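Forgive a beginner's question, but would it be possible to get a protein, spelled out as residues, together with the matching C-alpha cells, please?
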Amino acid sequence: MTVEPARPAPSPSVPAPRSTAEPVPVLLSAPAPAAPPGGRAAWLAWSVGVSVYVLAVIHRTSLGVAGLDAADRFGIGASALSTFSILQVLVYAAMQIPVGLLVDRFGPRRVLMLGIVLLSTGQLAFAFSADFGPALASRAVLGCGDAMTFISVLRIAARWFPAARNPFVAQLTGLVGMGGNLVTTVVLARALHSEGWTPTFTAIALLGAGVFVPVAFLLRDAPPRQEAGARPEPVGARPKVGRQVLACWREPGTRLGLWIHFTTQFPGNAFGLLWGLPYLVQAQGMSRAGAGGLLTLLVLSNMTFGFVFGRLLSATARARMPIVLTVVVTTALGWALVLAWPGGHPPAWLLVGIILVMGSNGPASLVGLDYARARNPVERLGTASGIVNMGGFIGTMITLFGIGVLLDLLSPDGAGSYSAAAFRWAFCWQYVPLAVGTAMILRLRRKVAAQPG
C-alpha cells in the first residue's frame, strides 16, 4: 500500500494558496439595488410626479387656444405668432440633455420643484405682458420649466416600478398628461373669452403653488430600500458630462428613439400647440366652439391611443416598430387626402378622421423612449431620455416655423386674410420633416436589429 506523504502546514507568515474553485469575494463593490417594488407606494410617487406633468401640459398648450387673441393683443402676423411656440419648443428641446443630466445627478424631485417655479414665473409674466418682446421672453422661461417635467416623471417610474411595467407607465404618463390639454381646450378657452387675458393666465400661473407642496413633502426619488442601500458615489467616479452624452449618442437605440420621437410626434403637436384652431376657424369656416370641440377630440383620441399602445407594448416589445410605421404611414396618407380635397374644404367626416389619426402621434412617439430605455444602463437613463425627447420638439419647431413663413408668403394682406388655399400649401410643409424622419428610422432600425439582445 502506498502511503501519501503528509502536506506541510502553511507558514503563519505566508497565506495558504486559494483553491481555483473557491469564489473570490468582491469586497469593494456596492450591493445590488433592490428591485423596484411597484404597488401602492409606487403609484403614489408616480401620481405626485405626474401632477407636475399635467400642469406643464396646461402651460404648454395654453397658447393653442389663445393664438388669435395673441395676434390681436400684440398686433402680429403668422410668422411672429409662430415665434411664441417656436421659442418655447426650442428652449424645451435645448434643455432636454441638461435636464437629463440634472435628473441623473440630483434626482427627479429637485428638478420637478425647479420646473414648477419656472412654469409659474413664465406664465405670470405672460399674463401681464402687453408687448411682443416681454411676452416672448416669458414663453422661453415657460419652455425651460416645461422641459424639466416629463423626463423626471419617467425616472420616477423607472425607480419605483418593475422594468416590465415601464412601457405601460410611460404611456399612462402621456395619457394623463393629455388631461392638461383637455383642461386647456375646455376650461381655458372659455375662461379666456369670459374673464379676459390677464385674469385667465394669472389663474393658471397660481396653480403651481398647489402642485409644489405635495412634490416637496410627499415625493421620494426612489423606494426607501433603494435609497438606504445606495452608497454615495465618489465625485471622481462620475462620468464627465461629455462622456455621458457621447455614450448615450453612440448607442443606436438612442438615435433610433430620437428619430421615432421626431417623426411621429410633430404633426399632432404642431396642430394642437398653435395651428389647429386658426386652420379650423379661418380655413374651414368653423366657429370657435366647433373648433374647440375638434381639439378636444384630438386630446381624447390621444388618451385612447395611449392606453391601447401601453397595453400592446407591455405584452410584447415586438409591437414597437409596427406601431411606429403604421402611425407614420396613416398620418401621411390622412393629410394627403385632406390637403388634396377639391377646393381645400374637406367634409366634416374627413376632418374628424385626421383628428383621430393625429391622436396616435403622441403615444407613438413614446415608443422612442422604450428603445432608449432598453439599450442604456440605468445610470444614464435621464440623459438618454433627454436626447430622445428632443426629437419630437425639434420636428414641431421646424413645422411651426415652416407653416408660419409659408402662410405669410401666401397671404400678403396679413393674419386676417389666410385662405383655405394658403393653409393647404402651408400644411404641405409637414412632408419635409416626415420624409427625413422616416428615412432615418428605416436606416437605424437595421442597426438596432443587428445588435445582440
Q: What stands out?
A: Residues 252-283 form the longest helix (32 residues). The chain is about 75% helix and 0% strand. Residues 39-221+240-450 form a domain with the Growth Hormone; Chain: A; fold (CATH 1.20.1250.20).
